[in-house]
Amino acid sequence: MLIVHLVVWVVTDRGLGPGLFGLALSAAGAGAFLGTAVSLRVAARLGHGRSFACALTLSTGTPLLIAVLPGAGTSLATALASVQFVSGVGLGVANVLSITLRQTVIPRGGLARSNGGYRLLNYGVLPLGSALGGVLGHTVGSRAGVAVGAVGLAASALPMLTRRIRSLRSPEDARTPQAPDVAGPHRVPAPAPLARLKRQARLKCRGRRPGGRRAGAGHPGGRCS
What we know:
Number of strands: 0
Order of helices and strands: HHHHHHHHH
Radius of gyration: 32 Å
Largest sheet: none
Number of helices: 9
């Protein structure tokens, strides 16, 4: 929704040239490259959860400034590029930390299904958002559509800003702890059937029955061949 209205508002309503608009958008890619490069260093210094929360806030919160950007022409393109660059840095850091967290917590056999579900939700809502954005822009205008899209983007990050996520020092801290053994650590497991049969055979070879009594002379267990 945000991108749909951003093109109309910046290029058509504000008169920004297509070339300058393209350069402004490309700043997000440069910021994402930088964020990807420094993501692990940031996580090592601040902690995984806190770094992820800050990066996600930066990525989804910075676009809230787009609807109030002043100026026109080059000044507008510079301001838009700055917002895109900062948001891209947050996006680069958040992507690396998010993927690391999923690959650590999710069992190896479920990674493919998890990635498929993630992409389904991520890309599956794009047609719905575009259609809703078109109706909204036709009703209230492109600038209001940019503002509503930016608010929706920021709100989408709220479920990931819980205390449990922010308190993670490393991705391993998010794993579900193993349930304690209710039987206690000193319980001896029951012998396997094969082991029980071998024990009985050894007792017979020693001239004793499994119950502890010595086998008689005529008992076949009194000797071993």
